[in-house]
Design a protein that fits this description.
It is built from 2 helices and 3 strands; from the N terminus they run ααβββ. The protein has helices spanning about 5-20, 25-50; strands at about 70-75, 75-85, 85-95.
């Protein structure tokens, strides 16, 4: 099991399907969902931090160290694009 946003989605969908089939108890599903909400909230803080410092990475969000930044000059500065599966971060530095 890898601890990232994709795995969290998988667990949440498994929980939803288990509820629909009657294979999972409501209290257990509630506990899973509350824990997932905490993880989501920490991911939001992580995103805010990445924005505040002007870049970075997150293995939880799918932004590994080598996220593949591409830098190009624009008419008014430099644009940097970082991409990972399901995520695209664009930064602009004015010059």
């Amino acid at each position: 099991m890898t601890d990232n946003i994709s795995e969290l989605r998988k667990v949440l969908f498994e929980t939803l399907h288990g509820l629909k089939k009657g294979d999972i108890e409501i209290d257990r599903a509630r506990a899973i969902n509350e824990t997932a909400q905490v993880l989501i909230n920490t991911a939001k803080v992580e995103i805010d931090h990445i924005r505040a410092i002007g870049g970075g990475n997150s293995t939880f969000l799918g932004l590994p160290e080598d996220a593949g930044e591409k830098e190009q000059r624009t008419a008014r500065g430099v644009q940097t694009v970082s991409e990972a599966p399901g995520v695209r971060i664009i930064k602009h530095r004015m010059s």
